[in-house]
Design a protein that fits this description.
Layout (H helix, E strand, L loop, with lengths): L3 H26 L9 H4 L11 H12 L3 H9 L4 H29 L5 H8 L2 H32 L4 H21 L4 H20 L5 H7 L3 H16 L8 H26 L18 H8 L7 H9 L10 H27 L4 H7 L3 H22 L4 H38 L2 H5 L1 H17 L12 H27 L5 H27 L5 H29 L14
Length: about 575
């Protein structure tokens, strides 16, 4: 089948979803109010609470949620066939991710821009806050560990991408300083920033950076050094005011999505590439079952709990006008779904020219997992080659795009982990942990660093073996629990919660099922680090599900008598 056919169908459904379904959510489910004074104005401090232009904020939000996961997950999941993968990406984005991302942003804005964990206390129960914060803590540890290894592997495989990625940091800081001090639009400076970034590709190809000599001297793998350097960088970056680095780099990177999608779609049209992978693949008998593992392998790109952390962690603190939440939240989900679509096209049509080649790359679930990111890079380079760009340049271009998204998500993830650590410090009354930013940042960095360097599962450690499955499952579980918070809030405010409850129930069934299957596998493989972690997450989830069910039942019974005390006074 010509790759352009499913691409146009999926993008058309996304457009209809934003035009009609997001409008329904905004009006009938979340009740957006243009008169509501958002926390960015109420609590403006110039560091975290900063009223931000909606296009700039979209750039931050989108690039924070669109890390490596919407590329790696779909690139792995086509192992079961591109048909099931695209169906989940399409309808998961429209009906699950849209409601989840949009709803968690609105509920956070209505509750002083509190995190989703704290919202669980206000909306469900006081115990729910602690339970949710612990689950989020584990999720962020896995997120930051996974993305660090993704970036490190790409740096090792593509040393020509190192200089452009590194030079993007001072470039973004310069743009941030200019925009902040002149109060001018970030659009033109960020466009210039993207052009400069791509011009540095030739510099990177002329001067590739490899850590192999230093790693050999120290007796460690180059990947290990890159992981350590990345966490040292995020320790500093996550402590800077958002306007210094996070916002300007996010806006630069948001342009990369549209450029990358344009390269992929135009490359598909010009080259008329065909999908050579099977619609439904006849996988080996010992492979994981696509039901439920397809729905946790593709987390980001369909629906992702990490998005609720971004929505309620940084985006809600920068939202200047409440109706903009529809554009930021729902369109951000559509943007990530589009990136997942691009990943499917790249690994099924761009990376290889025949079904035989594809079958070699996807001979087993292990080979599909290990080669996912590089398959995507190779696929994008193939589409770029259709447009006249040399394969060598296309490889660096695609690598920069993946690393830029993943690095931004790491910055945001470590910042969010610091918030969570400080909240846990408040609950446990450990004042140094709650008040000392340096100590909280250290905890936020050291634990995922240790997980990323944990031995086991081959040369790539746990990350592309069992760790990816646990990451995906925990991520989807967090999405289900975030939807539980949104569902209770919607019900309390006398609106129809069905649009939230349906994806909520589906995700909770899939994730608890996957956790149970993972536990059996971890015990069978003697994975005595991940098995206890799986048990802890499972028990916390079950407890929180019970708390949410009780709160929802209570909300249904009282919905005609009271409203949420935090509800904006003039809302109907």
């Amino acid at each position: 089948m010509p790759a352009i056919v499913p691409a146009l169908v999926v993008l058309g459904i996304f457009a209809l979803g934003y035009r009609y379904y997001s409008a329904y959510l905004a009006r009938r489910v979340y009740g957006l109010d243009p008169e509501f004074v958002t926390p960015a104005h109420q609590r403006g401090d110039g560091v975290d609470f900063v009223p931000t232009n909606k296009h700039v904020l979209f750039g931050h939000h989108f690039t924070s949620v669109a890390g490596a996961a919407p590329i790696v997950g779909p690139a792995i999941a086509v192992f079961w066939g591109w048909g099931p993968a695209l169906l989940w990406i399409t309808f998961g984005t429209v009906f699950a991710a849209g409601a989840h991302d949009f709803g968690s942003l609105v509920v956070s804005v209505r509750h002083r821009a509190e995190s989703i964990g704290t919202l669980a206390r206000d909306v469900i129960s006081r115990r729910a806050r602690t339970l949710f914060l612990l689950i989020i803590f584990f999720l962020l540890t896995l997120v930051n560990a996974v993305f660090a290894v993704v970036i490190a592997n790409l740096f090792v495989a593509n040393p020509a991408a190192v200089l452009p990625v590194v030079l993007q940091v001072p470039l973004a800081i310069g743009i941030g300083q200019y925009v902040y001090h002149t109060r001018s639009s970030a659009f033109l400076p960020s466009i210039i920033g993207v052009i400069v970034l791509y011009l540095t590709i030739m510099l990177g190809m002329a001067f590739p950076v490899s850590l192999d000599p230093l790693a050999a001297t120290l007796g460690v793998e180059p990947r290990t050094l890159w992981v350590i350097f990345l966490f040292a960088y995020t320790f500093v970056a996550s402590r800077l005011p958002v306007w210094v680095l996070l916002q300007p780099r996010d806006y630069i990177n948001s342009h990369q999505l549209f450029i990358g999608l344009a390269v992929i779609l135009l490359g598909v049209v010009v080259g008329f590439d065909r999908i050579v992978a099977p619609v439904i693949n006849d996988v080996p008998a010992d492979s994981p079952s696509w039901f439920p593992f397809l729905f946790v392998t593709i987390a980001c790109g369909a629906v992702s709990g990490f998005h609720s952390l971004v929505s309620s962690g940084t985006s809600s603190k920068q939202l200047g006008n409440e109706p903009d939440a529809r554009y930021i939240g729902y369109m951000g989900a559509v943007g990530e779904g589009s990136l997942a679509l691009a990943a499917v096209l790249a690994v099924t049509a761009g990376a290889v020219g025949s079904t035989v080649e594809w079958n070699n790359l996807y001979a087993s679930f292990a080979t599909a997992s290990d080669g996912a990111t590089q398959n995507f890079v190779q696929g994008v380079a193939g589409f770029a080659n259709n447009l006249g760009l040399p394969i060598s340049v296309g490889l660096v271009f695609a690598t920069i795009m993946v690393i830029s998204f993943a690095a931004t998500t790491m910055d945001t993830g470590v910042r969010l982990q610091r918030y969570v650590v400080q909240e846990i410090g408040e609950i446990t009354r450990v004042r140094p942990l709650a008040r000392n930013m340096t100590l909280a940042s250290t905890v936020a960095v050291v634990l995922p660093l240790a997980m990323a360097l944990l031995p086991g599962g081959g040369e790539k450690g746990y990350t592309f073996g069992v760790l990816w499955q646990l990451f995906g499952t925990t991520n989807q579980l967090t999405a289900g629990l975030a939807l539980a918070v949104v569902a209770v809030w919607v019900t309390k405010n006398r609106r129809n919660p069905l649009a939230v409850l349906l994806p909520l129930l589906f995700l909770l069934v899939m994730t608890t099922w996957a956790l149970a299957l993972n536990l059996v596998e971890f015990v069978a493989q003697d994975q005595w680090v991940l098995a206890p972690l799986d048990v802890i997450i499972f028990l916390l989830a079950v407890w929180l599900i019970v708390e949410a069910a009780v709160a929802l039942r209570r909300a249904v019974r009282s919905r005609g008598e009271t409203t949420d005390p935090h509800q904006y006074a003039t809302e109907g």
